[in-house]
Amino acid sequence: MAKTPKSNLYEDLKRQILTMELDPDADLDEASLSEKYGLSRTPVRDIFRRLAGEGYIDIRENRGARVIPMNHSTLRNFFLVAPMVYAAIGRLAVQNFKPVQLLDLKQTQERFRAASDNMDALAMVLENNRFHEIFGEMSGNVYLQPSLGRLLIDHARIGHTFFRPRNEDMKRRLQVAVGHHDSFIDALGAHDENAVVDLVFEHWELSRENMEMFIAPQGLKADAFLGGPATQLLEKSS
């Protein structure tokens, strides 16, 4: 399908939010976007409403649109709920996936692997996000898919340290994550529901440890008042 200025705006804003090119809570300038994409205000507002419905932006009355923020409350809820949603999605994916979706997952994994080999952080963010989106599509559940979509937005944004490894241990963890994706594909092909759920929690734990680096960088963790893992910090802040 041919790209249109309206579809380009939609895809570009999604990509910029997921890759943190647009910071959380950043204001979106309707006028400048209209000019840049050659659109009138009405289609720009249509895109804003669509993205708001998908959880990417927040539209405030008389104050315009902004990138959905991240704060202590949303992060705490993310850490509490993500494993449960991912596990439920995984079970339903095994039960309901279609062969064409498994092929899509395999192709996405090949792009993710290539991005990891090239240390292309932005491509890894987008392909990893797509990999997990496909799981949601496989589940075929109209209640869980919107929840997964919202979780994946923040998962991408706070997981950036994972795709920018700064030492050998982080590089090793990244390769483990690539291997997890291969194992997900094998378990789905075998219709092994328990194996998929076990992998969900292994994969989540790997991601969680790296996401804590984003929330509490090493320099801050050394301060006495920041003792304990990020999950404890989030609980105390609620």
Automatic annotation (TrEMBL):
Pfam families: FCD, GntR
Keywords: DNA-binding, Transcription, Transcription regulation
GO molecular function annotation: DNA binding; DNA-binding transcription factor activity
Domain HTH gntR-type: 3-70
Keyword Transcription regulation assigned: yes
Domain of life (superkingdom): Bacteria
InterPro entries: GntR_C (IPR011711), TF_FadR/GntR_C (IPR008920), Tscrpt_reg_HTH_GntR (IPR000524), WH-like_DNA-bd_sf (IPR036388), WH_DNA-bd_sf (IPR036390)
Record has Transcription regulation as a keyword: yes
PANTHER family tied to this protein: HTH-TYPE TRANSCRIPTIONAL REPRESSOR NANR, TRANSCRIPTIONAL REGULATOR, GNTR FAMILY
Protein name: GntR family transcriptional regulator
Organism: Rhizobium sophorae
